[in-house]
Amino acid sequence: MNTFFEYFNKPLLKVPLLFGLLTGVLAFFYFLGLYLLNVSPLGNVRTPDFGIHIILVCYACWHYRKKYGQGWMHLWEGLTIGYVINMTAAFVTGWLIYLFVSYIDPQVFQNYLQEMQDLLLSKKTELVEQIGEEEFGVLLNKVKENQPSTLITDEISKKFMLGIIPILLISLFFRRQQPQR
User: Fold this and answer.
1) Distance separating alpha carbons of residues 31 and 173, to the nearest angstrom
2) 98 and 80 co-located in one domain
3) Which stretches are transmembrane (predicted)?
């Protein structure tokens, strides 16, 4: 059991896991802020919470380079830090939102499903022209069949896709290699 904890005591894993946990909790607070302002907290209005991810990935790369890398950091270290933070945060946020809509206020999820159905129905003529009546019916049924547990995988997949370019750019910006002698 000691070797298990020693594995997670490496700075390259410990730093991003802690920053990822912090990022996930802060993103959930953003969700709660939207909820308290009576703005639908599920949907595209939550996309700016990715700014929290970007800020904390930058800070974590700077912190790792300064404290553990003695001023040096390879590109792969930056990428590792960025993706571990991003995925940990998405996992934590997804689960916290799932628990919120399952146990505290299930109406939030029901309102979200209704908004998605209303959006599809408002664009029905355009969608039917593009994908056909049968596919539109399938799409509408899939929206109706959504469960709160889909929020977890949705959060992880969205944050993964949103994070590819910014994490690469942040890693490139913060990398600094020792000169060859």
Assistant:
1) 30
2) yes
3) 12-33, 45-62, 83-104
